[in-house]
Specification:
This protein is of the alpha/beta class. It has 23 helices and 25 strands. A hairpin with a 2-residue loop joins strand 13 and strand 14. It is elongated, with a radius of gyration of 30 Å. The structure holds phosphoenolpyruvate (PEP) and manganese (II) ion. The site of manganese (II) ion (MN) has 5 residues, from loops.
Length: about 675
């Protein structure tokens, strides 16, 4: 026996030596490839290698599938090795967070990822996905490794939610073959088990096996490896856990059954997250992930997908998820083979932004060398664009001349030419843009429950579609009423909800955006902030319509360029609002520039509405200018109304009384506009 074991040890070391030799050859290949423009992954060549080794294995009486599994890992490692070369990764340490305890699958996947990049990690496990992401966002970690989908149980919703909500970027991915086992403190019959602990994903992935154990209660635990630890600590022989065999061994448990997942090929895909996006060398096989919200017309999703397929990007994943706060509306998570550093991918993304309502690019990252073997519900992807094209493209980039003269236009995505029709934005059950005419009405500022509630009910009864109310107020004097802040937002939301109206309110600072986007239906960027570029970029990152007021002294071109800031971040849902500009005229508070409506409608596909309250500053001029705006082709109005305007804490002079508002709405319905709109307005009055 001893000598047999010695022989075996020798063979094992021999295998490791051969792997080292293989890596030496790969290094030499990497150096050759470094000089060229060819991609480092060659699917045709990989297939050849796999076919050759499995044929050789079969001849020698070794399982072909074992040979393929081993060589897939070797090839994957060698692609990573070459990528490391191109990236110039110099090793080093990274602080890495994951969900769960040591020896959880996330821990193992994180280690595999680090090894593939030649990094060493200081690893910290957190109780929840959110805690791990929080540590990354707080700067306490460099990378977070979180599971995003499993081939048996599907997507991991919570991680998708984090990607949607937080400024996180995907910079890498890793796959891990999940090998669940059932383990307990002692060798006991399965029928004696009363409780089985695991992470909900672990329980879900073994649901068929669990059904075969009628006496045992599946019990969720925060982590698979943690469940093993708990079983070891309790020493109760009727309690077992589901996790990896490594975790069982680590806690001294007895493995009762292996391979208990419903589906044998059970893989989990992990994403590697960072606070900043990565740039990937064009020769490295690369994937890009994004979140997409499409328009509400039939065919809108198809148009977006055609932008990707038409530009030669093959899609590896398309998943629809409910859009939070928008019942029966969906957003899509898309992965495709492409690299944002590639001009063709960048152009496709620009086109996609024009075809969609919201696009958040989650990042480009090196794809794992090989897709997992064909598995249920997944289409095997095609090889990427031909090598030849790639090389040509690289040369073209190097040789691309700089534009001869600066372009006169400072925007492209909001340009009328970027989209076929008008942008139509959905707010609650009302569409802004196109043929509709939308009235947003309410007080300048939310002052009290009684005030906002009475106004909400009144304007709703008289045909308004959206409730306005400022809670953070940009006032000229610091001694004027500054708004009720977040408490005011609660009052506004409650009033809107009870009247059945979506709400619009102004966001003044970058750090208010995400919180406000959780509940407010439209985020208003005020005239004074029209060129607050940080604020524009931030509202461009959330999936909420934005109303962008024209600056006090801004040209139409500057205004459209400001809208471009929002749209360029991915949020296409911008409504422009003309609210008067500063001129030498002093009879009115501002000069309402209605010609801007005609100009904007010519130059841009975005909807444009008019605010005659701020435009004139005096309530008796509001109705005539509202009518004129409608006749000029505006898509709607923003109107200040107050139950007792003379007592208003802000903009008293320009706020309409309830009576004036009712009369305005009657008058509007009589103005010729699109038939649908007139009918819609008179139906509600
Ligand atoms: C408002 O709508 O109350 C407001 C402050 O508007 P503007 O930014 O146009 O002055
Ligand atoms: Mn106001």
């Amino acid at each position: 026996m001893a000598s047999l074991r010695e022989g075996l040890d020798e063979v094992d070391i021999g295998i490791v030596r051969l792997i080292a030799r293989r890596r030496g050859l790969i290094d030499a290949i990497a150096q050759v490839k470094e000089q060229g423009t060819a991609r480092i992954q060659d699917p045709g060549r990989e297939q050849e290698v796999l076919d050759r080794v499995s044929a050789a294995a079969s001849e020698l009486g070794v399982s072909a599938s074992l040979a393929r599994t081993i060589f897939r890992e070797l090839i994957s490692d060698s692609v990573a090795q070459q990528a490391r070369h191109l990236n110039g990764d110099a090793g080093g340490r990274a602080r890495v967070v994951f969900q769960g305890a040591e020896h959880s699958y996330s821990h193992a996947a994180a280690q595999k990822y680090l090894a593939s990049r030649g990094l060493r990690g200081d690893m910290t496990g957190h109780r929840t996905f959110r805690d791990a992401a929080g540590a990354l966002l707080a700067g306490d970690a460099d990378l977070a490794v979180l599971p995003i989908e499993n081939t048996t149980a599907g997507s991991i919703n919570e991680v998708y939610a984090l990607l949607r909500e937080q400024p996180l970027y995907i910079i890498g991915e890793e796959t891990w073959k999940v090998d669940h086992c059932l383990a307990a403190a002692a060798e006991v019959p399965l029928s004696s088990l009363s409780k089985i602990l695991s992470h909900p994903q672990g329980l879900e992935q073994c649901s068929q096996f669990l059904q075969s154990l009628p006496n045992a209660m599946p019990t969720t635990y925060f982590d698979t490896a943690g469940a093993m630890q708990a079983v070891a600590a309790s020493a109760d022989p009727t309690v077992a856990a589901i996790a990896s065999p490594e975790a069982a061994a680590m806690h001294g448990l007895v493995v009762l059954r292996r391979g208990i997942a419903d589906i044998d090929d059970n893989y989990t895909r992990f994403v590697v997250l960072s606070g900043t996006p990565a740039t990937v060398d064009l020769r490295i096989p690369c994937k890009t992930s994004l979140i997409l919200v499409t328009g509400h017309e039939e065919g809108d999703l198809l148009r977006c997908l055609e932008v990707l397929s038409g530009s030669g990007h093959s899609m590896t994943k398309l998943e629809s998820r409910p859009r939070p706060g928008r019942p029966w509306e969906y957003m899509f998570f898309v992965d495709f083979e492409g690299n944002t550093a590639d001009p063709r991918t960048a152009a496709a993304l620009d086109e996609l932004r024009s075809a969609a309502l919201f696009v958040k690019v989650l990042g480009s990252y090196p794809a794992k060398a090989l897709k997992a073997p064909a598995r249920p519900g997944e289409v095997q992807s095609q090889p990427g664009p031909a090598e030849q094209d790639r090389a040509e493209m690289l040369e073209a980039v190097a040789a691309a001349p700089r534009p001869a003269a600066p372009r006169s236009r400072q925007y492209k995505l909001v340009d009328r030419a970027a989209r076929e029709g008008d942008t139509v934005i959905r707010v609650g059950d009302v569409l802004v843009g196109g043929d509709g005419f939308v009235v947003m009405a309410g007080p300048c500022s939310v002052e009290s429950h009684e005030q906002i509630d009475a106004t909400a009910r009144f304007v709703r009864e008289h045909g308004a579609h959206v409730l306005r109310g400022g809670v953070f107020k940009p006032r000229t004097s610091p001694y004027s009423f500054q708004g009720l802040g977040w408490e005011g937002l609660d009052l506004l939301l409650a009033a809107g909800r009870s009247a059945g109206l979506p709400v619009i309110t102004e966001v003044m600072a970058v750090d208010q955006v995400r919180r406000m986007a959780e509940t407010a239906d439209i985020l208003q960027v005020g005239a004074r902030n029209m060129q607050n570029f940080d604020l524009l970029r931030e509202v461009g990152k959330v999936d909420r319509p934005v109303l962008l007021k024209r600056g006090l002294s801004s040209t139409v071109e500057e205004w459209l360029a400001a809208a471009e800031y929002v749209v360029a971040q991915g949020n296409q849902q911008v409504i422009l609002c003309e609210r008067g500009i500063r001129t030498f005229e002093s009879a009115t508070r501002n000069t309402l520039d209605l010609s801007a409506v005609a100009v904007v409608r010519e130059r841009s596909h975005l909807p444009v509405i008019v605010d005659p309250s701020h435009g004139t500053g005096q309530r008796r001029y509001v109705a005539p200018m509202a009518w004129a705006a409608r006749a000029a082709g505006a898509h709607g109005l923003l109107i200040e109304v107050h139950p007792d305007p003379d007592k208003a804490l802000s903009d008293a002079d320009q706020s309409l009384t309830f009576g004036q508002f009712a009369e305005l709405m009657r008058g509007l319905a009589a103005i010729p506009g699109s038939p649908a709109t007139a009918a819609q307005l008179s139906a509600r009055t």
